[in-house]
């Protein structure tokens, strides 16, 4: 990812970092992945505000000065940690929405993909959800783009709900906006309790969420 | 509320604050409520870490020194802002659980009470949910008590779900733990989108959540 706009870093280090990021360099990429993983861990455990570049460096087994060779600021590390997940969820939702499936089938597939993004991207997804206000405050081009992806992702789900209500397959006495928030609520609240190495796997949880929201808990 | 344990403040100001909090004093109580409301607003808008006592004082139309007459620290203000809501939800859930009602009826009543706590306690409930990690890190007696209330509150809901599965009124092919997290997920995620002065009222949203989780979105 390029530096976020507004970065004031224009030192020689900045040029060397950009050059290293551009060139194919396995060592650089590996070390950078390690620093990003350390940043994600730290943000998830103690929060963005309480994390220092020194903490991240220590977790990655390096020093603060070396971290600057991989990212210009804590904000850039945050963006790199969070980037890609909303884009993946949006692309999957748009692809699923276009298929010849019922609204209920589409919603279940989207729920499964969403929790699998969380599972595969752990703890990055946790960081994104916990620090969502940092994104939605939308002061950078990056955060504006992420907010736009989130808005479009929500719109796809709301539109599937509306289609199902219109074609009579879903009940129409519930507000599609409220139903959309209910679904994202249960999906995103997993940041509080779901762990990839825990008792549940993402697909099982998502399928149970689909049973709850589509069929309901009441026995028939 | 008493000072949190571990407070090192033992100045004359500390004694005067405790005295004022003990005595009936309408002016003191009013000013303290104003400072707490300002603290809740600031924590909700910019987050706990980024809020300073100066910010809170400015919002309350006073100065930092005066804030210390009402609370010994930012941490104490946070505790005062968040206190009472989990206790209210737990007490309501225990009272509802003891009634002669079906599991589904109990769950709906608990959802309505939960969102009404959010609505009445806005933006305090938002602060509690957004800064939940500050509570669950559980380094003070206050936070340990709050975590225990949260654990018991979740246990009441899980137990109602289990009872409904046992008596055959709720489907038993869903894990009650996952169903409990699904319900708290949609309830607590409202901190992202629900506003008391917005388009929806808490009872309407909670009843739609109950329809979604109990009857399901699929048209029958």
Automatic annotation (TrEMBL), chains A, B:
Residues 1-24 are annotated as: Disordered. It comes from Amycolatopsis rubida. The keyword Acetylation does not apply. Keywords: DNA-binding, Repressor, Transcription, Transcription regulation. Gene3D superfamilies: Homeodomain-like, Tetracycline Repressor, domain 2. InterPro entries: Homeodomain-like_sf (IPR009057), HTH-type_TetR-like_transc_reg (IPR050109), HTH_TetR (IPR001647), KstR2_TetR_C (IPR041490), Tet_transcr_reg_TetR-rel_C_sf (IPR036271). Residues 29-89 form the HTH tetR-type domain. It holds the Pfam family TetR_N. Residues 1-14 have a biased composition (Basic and acidic residues). Residues 52-71 bind DNA. This is TetR/AcrR family transcriptional regulator.
């Amino acid at each position: 990812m390029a530096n976020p706009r507004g970065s004031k870093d224009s030192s020689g280090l900045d040029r060397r970092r950009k050059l290293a990021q551009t060139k194919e360099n396995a060592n650089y990429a590996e070390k950078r992945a390690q620093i990003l993983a350390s940043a994600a861990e730290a943000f998830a455990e103690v929060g963005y505000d309480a994390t220092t570049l020194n903490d991240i460096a220590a977790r990655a087994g390096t020093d603060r000065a070396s971290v600057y060779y991989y990212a210009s600021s804590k904000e850039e590390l945050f963006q790199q940690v969070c980037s890609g997940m909303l884009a993946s969820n949006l692309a999957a939702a748009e692809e699923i929405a276009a298929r010849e499936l019922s609204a209920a089938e589409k919603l279940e597939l989207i729920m499964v993909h969403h929790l699998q993004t969380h599972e595969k991207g752990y703890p990055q997804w946790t960081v994104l959800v916990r620090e969502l206000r940092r994104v939605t405050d939308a002061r950078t081009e990056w955060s504006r783009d992420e907010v736009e992806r989130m808005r479009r992702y929500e719109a796809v789900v709301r539109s599937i709900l509306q289609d199902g209500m219109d074609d009579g397959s879903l009940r129409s006495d519930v507000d599609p906006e409220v139903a959309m928030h209910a679904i994202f609520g249960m999906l995103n609240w997993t940041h509080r309790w779901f762990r990839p190495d825990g008792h549940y796997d993402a697909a099982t949880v998502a399928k149970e969420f689909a049973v709850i929201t589509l069929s309901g808990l009441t026995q028939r």
